[in-house]
Design goal:
By secondary structure, this protein is an alpha+beta fold. Helices cover 45% and strands 14% of the residues. Strand 3 and strand 4 form a beta hairpin.
Length: 414
Amino acid sequence: MKKILLYFMSATALLLGFTSCGDDDCFSESIYDTSVQAVDPNSATAEFDQWIYENFTKPYNVEIQYKFNLPASDYDFQLTPAAYDKSQLLTYFMKYLFYDVYTKYAGEEFMKQYSPRIYHYIGSSGYSPNTGTEILGLASGGVKITLYNINEMKSYAPGISYSGEDIFTLNQKVFHTMHHEFSHIMHQTKTYPITFGQVTSGSYDPIDWHERDSVESHRLGYVTHYASSASYEDFVETLSCIITDDDYRWMMRLINACANGWRDGDKDGVIQLVSDLGIDMDKTGAHWNNFKVFTEKEYNSETGAYDIETNRIVLDDHRSTEKVINKTYTGYVNQYQYTELKSFSSFREFLNWVSIKSDDGVSGINALLKKISIATNWHKERWGLDTYVLRQEVRDRQDHLDDFLSTVTIFPLK
C-alpha cells in the first residue's frame, strides 16, 4: 500500500504545479525513486505477489494481505496465519467468483470505485467461547475486509476436483462473508430503505440473537439467526443468502417460515421466489419432495414432563438433540419431544397443506417475502444489479470450477 499511496501523492504534486505555473517547463522529475519495482523479485513469494499486482493492485488499487499482519489482527482471539497455497487459491477464487461477476454486470468502473482497498487473510476462526459464536469476516470503514477460516478451504493440486460439498463449504465460510461485507460497503454508500427494518422491527435482538435456532429465526421472518441481530445485518444477510445459499438451504428456510401458516397471497409469493432463485421445485430425489414435520414440546424440569408447548412445527432435519438436566431422576434428558405431524411427498403438497391465518404468529413468510422484495429492488434501483442474475452467474461459474482450477498456478515458495 505504501507504493500506491506514493502514486497519489505524486499526482497531487503535479496538479498543484500545473495550477501555479501554467507552464510545462515548470514540471520537474519526480522526487521519488520511480525505478523501484512494485514487487521484490528476490522475495520467496515474488511470483504470487506479481500476480496480485497485475490482477488486483493495478486495476483496483487493492492490497491483499495474505501474510500474517499482527498489528491488523484482533488481539481478542488466538489466530493463526493463512496457509500460502490456500491464500493463493482464495485470491484466484475471489477474482473469478466475485470481482469478475460484479464487473460483468455493473461495468468496469464499479469495482474500481467501490471495492475495499485491503483484504486481510486469517487462517483460523475468530471464535468466542463466551457466546459460542464465530466471526467469519469483518468490514472496517468500507476500506478493509478481514476474512477468517482460510485454512479450512480444500487444498488444490492437479487432478483434485471440487465437489458440491466443497463448494458449499466455500460459500458458507468465505463467499457468503464476502457478499455480506461488500453489501455493507454498498449500503453505507447508498443507504437502504428504512421500510426494510420496519417489517420485523419488534423482534431484532442485538444481545441474544445467537440463542435463536434456524426454526425460530425463519418463523420470525429472518434468513439466518444472525440476521435477527440488527436491521443492517438483516439487510446484507438477505442479499448474501440469495447470491450464495444453495437450493437445499433455501427450501428448508421456506418450509420453516411457512409451516405455522401464512397470510392470504403468500403462496403465490413463495412460488415466485422459488422460481426467481432458479430452484426446480419438482426436482426428483430432492429432499424437499420427501420430508416430515413434527410438533414440538419442551421438557419442564419442575414437573418432569414434556408439558411446555412451543407451538412450533419442526422439520426432521431441525430436531434438536440438546440435553438438559432431569432434576427428578438426576441425569440428562432430551430438551424437546417431537411428535410426527405429517409427511410430504412433495413441496407442492406442503404448500397446499399450509393454512391461511391472519395472526402475527404466522407472519414469518410474509415478512421474509417483503424484505427480500425491498432488498432486491434496492440492488436494482440504486445499483442496476439483479440479485437473482448474480446468483445464477455465481452458480454457473461454480459448476465449472474444476475447469477454472485447471488454468491456475499455485506458486511454490522460492
